[in-house]
Amino acid sequence: MVNSIIVYFSYHRGNTSKIAHVIGRELNSDIARVKDATVKNLNRYDLIGLGSGIYKGKPHSSIFEIVDKLDDGFKDKYFFIFCTSRKNQECYLDELEMKLKSKGVKYLGRFQTFGEYDRGIFKFFGGINRGRPDIEDFQNAASFARKLKEIVENEKLENS
């Protein structure tokens, strides 16, 4: 069994929260909003997921603050990242991925999907990506989580 936690920041529409809970159910994870998570508490988990909506082209600053506080005690921990956004651009998670890798953690990958967006000018048109994330997005998130679980379980078996 993989001891895991999902830490996320979700603000406007709850899109990231929905994905966090899908991944969390698949991994049987604890789930925490970033404001309730501390680096000290994260150290007791083997697998840590960090998720956020995208704000001005990147994950919320609170996610970066957690990564900044990671010390050498996290080098044996597995990490993955995920996001929801109005545009599904690969570059949104690049900076966070590089920062995690620079900490020397066992980085497993990323998951991205669309999120409903009705801010700014889009609110006058009923928003974009209505209904997203949807059932297909949830299935893709669950599949991503199963792959993560398999990787961690297989590596734990090899090391035992």
From TrEMBL:
One of its GO terms (molecular function) is FMN binding. Gene3D superfamilies: 3.40.50.360. Transmembrane segments: none annotated. It comes from the Bacteria. This is Flavodoxin. Residues 5-149 form the Flavodoxin-like domain. InterPro entries: Flavodoxin/NO_synth, Flavodoxin_dom, Flavoprotein-like_sf, Protoporphyrinogen_IX_DH. PROSITE patterns: FLAVODOXIN_LIKE. GO terms for biological process: heme biosynthetic process. It comes from candidate division TA06 bacterium 34_109.
